[in-house]
Write a structure and sequence with these properties.
heterodimer, A: about 260 residues, alpha/beta, 6-stranded mixed sheet, 4-stranded antiparallel sheet, about 40% helix, B: about 280 residues, 7-stranded mixed sheet, 3-stranded antiparallel sheet, 7 helices, about 30% helix, about 20% strand, globular
């Protein structure tokens, strides 16, 4: 374990004019750790991801990230060219809707190969080999490599997106509702797969979700958000079994038992 | 034709286009926006090329215009006629005599030499457009050299056809930096772009972009290490001049399925036949 967190977020604030996205958000993400962010719709969960991944500009705050070579950069203030390069090499994003994270008009193999080609891979055979390897890892039949993602089921599309995200061996993954829109049995398989991959690759991840069951399976620690602020944070089991903040208590007690 | 300025365009417009051309030459392969004018021919017929030609042509120039390699097709004849009337410059069909060559879809077989200018008519200048419809995004991708998607296209070709099936408008990298569309020339002509002694100018009238490859600039066609770039080869020789080196068109000669292959470059083919006779 290294001495400092992979990602240290301090005072992250995003305002949309009068309205607030998130206020004074701070947390540390350690290598190999999975943090779950839960809260109701509009509580600022996704805003955090968008600010960190550079899709929207934060109003204030800092997010220091330790690069592979040990140098430290502030994700919120680095130039766009450097940030995009880092986004290609060091982190990945898994979108809620696989259609946002995949290129629907090119084959599954090209989807998985594209991040490699973006990093300069220029050997067709090797790119295809890596794509096949990853399709196997996410349990997609290898003979589907030349099919368009549009012909895949929702669960397969999501697994394909995960393969595409992880093929470059990132160190940090942002997941925005990775199991949203999937039926329960598919969700369970996907979560199982994700848990295995995250553990095998030693990934650090931030998982945004409103589904507490997802966090129970995946996340080591939880941040509970409401109205743009973190109202409670701690170990997942601790928060789910013994919530302290009234809103956390409401959230946990709102889950319908099957 | 005294009612018109020399070469049709007014001097201010030519000045604006020349500035765009100078910028394009300074940044090889970079698409420079310019205020494209209405021209007396329709979009898709070479409005961009005509504007570039009109801006660089001088009274001492000798103009050649080709369309698919031929000097005698409609587009070539009408553009040549247009400049003959509006400038009074001498026109030619001979590649080695011309100082200025406007072209659609071909580069002449006769090697170009230093001092010549080629003007290409470009329908769609943006090589990333097939994958990214937003202009703001493609500009950012060019600025940050995010060119991974170009190889996705080649990957798809090899996956579907076993080889790169793109046969024309084959994307190139100019001077190790910008990815460029060489206009719809066959990929057979791509090697002629590399370190060409002539100045290559590209004009897209509808899309309002000008770009350039200065003389002697390296131009590399995109490929994979295990699927290197190759050009077309024909089993036949030209039925008229017997050339085995030039780009051949297939021509149907009767209604009984008879067909021959002939050079697409009419000047090259004709000169060879003169030489052989």
């Amino acid at each position: 374990m290294s001495e400092r967190p992979l990602l240290a977020v301090r005072g992250l604030t995003k305002r949309y004019g009068e309205r607030t996205g998130c206020v004074d958000v701070g947390f540390d993400l350690w290598p190999g750790e999975v943090i779950g962010v839960v809260g109701e719709s509009g509580s600022g969960k996704t805003t955090i991801l968008h600010c960190l991944s550079g899709r929207t500009a934060a109003t204030a705050g800092s997010a220091t990230f330790v690069q592979r070579d040990g140098t430290v950069v502030d994700l919120l203030r680095m130039p766009e060219a450097a940030r995009r390069r880092l986004a290609r090499t060091d982190w990945a994003m898994v979108q809620q809707n696989p259609r946002d994270g995949l290129r629907m008009s090119v084959t599954a193999g090209a989807n998985v190969g594209e991040p490699l080609m973006a990093l300069g891979a220029r050997h067709y055979g090797e790119i295809r080999g890596r794509a096949l390897d990853w399709l196997g890892q996410v349990e997609i039949p290898l003979d589907r490599i030349d099919d368009l993602p549009a012909t895949f089921s929702g669960g397969m599309q999501q697994r394909l997106q995960i393969a595409r995200s992880l093929v470059t061996r990132p160190r940090m993954v942002f997941m925005d509702e990775p199991t949203g829109g999937l039926d329960v049995s598919v969700q369970a398989r996907l979560l199982d797969l994700l848990r295995g991959l995250v553990a095998d690759l030693g990934l650090a991840a931030i998982v945004v979700t409103h589904d507490l069951a997802v966090t129970r399976l995946l996340a080591h620690r939880l941040l509970v958000m409401r109205g743009g602020e973190i109202v409670e944070s701690g170990l997942t089991d601790q928060i789910l079994d013994d919530p302290q903040h009234p809103y956390s208590q409401l959230l946990v007690s709102s889950v319908l038992p099957p | 034709m005294s009612a018109y300025n020399f070469a049709y365009l007014d001097e201010q417009t030519k000045r604006m286009i020349r500035r765009a051309i100078l910028k394009a030459i300074a940044i090889p392969g970079y698409q420079v926006p310019f205020g494209s004018r209405e021209m007396p021919l329709s979009y898709g017929w070479g409005t961009g090329g005509v504007q570039v030609t009109a801006s660089v042509i001088g009274p001492d120039d000798v103009l050649k215009v080709i369309d698919q390699g031929a000097d005698d097709t409609t587009n070539a004849v009408s553009i040549r006629h247009f400049f003959a009337r509006t400038t009074g410059v001498r026109t030619t069909t001979r590649t080695d005599e011309a100082t200025l060559i406007q072209t659609r879809h071909r580069i002449p077989e006769t090697p170009l030499c230093a001092g010549q200018i080629m003007v290409f008519q470009v329908p769609i200048p943006e090589p990333l457009r097939w994958l990214e419809p937003r202009e703001t995004e493609t500009r950012t991708m060019h600025a940050l050299e995010e060119y991974g998607v170009m190889h996705v296209r080649l990957y798809e070709d090899i996956t579907q056809h076993g080889r790169v099936a793109t046969a024309y408008d084959y994307p190139v990298r100019v001077n190790g930096r910008y990815i460029m569309r060489p206009s719809p020339i066959p990929k057979f002509d791509n090697p002629k772009l590399d370190r060409s002694p002539a100045l290559l100018l590209f004009g897209a009238g509808r899309e309002k972009r000008i770009y350039a490859v200065p003389p002697w600039t390296p131009v590399k066609s995109l490929d994979f290490d295990d699927h290197p770039f190759t050009i077309e080869r024909w089993e036949e020789a030209c039925a008229l001049c017997g050339s085995r080196e030039s780009f051949l068109d297939e021509v149907i000669v009767d209604d009984k399925g008879g067909r021959i292959f002939v050079c697409s470059d009419t000047d090259y083919c004709g000169r060879r036949r003169e030489h052989l006779a």
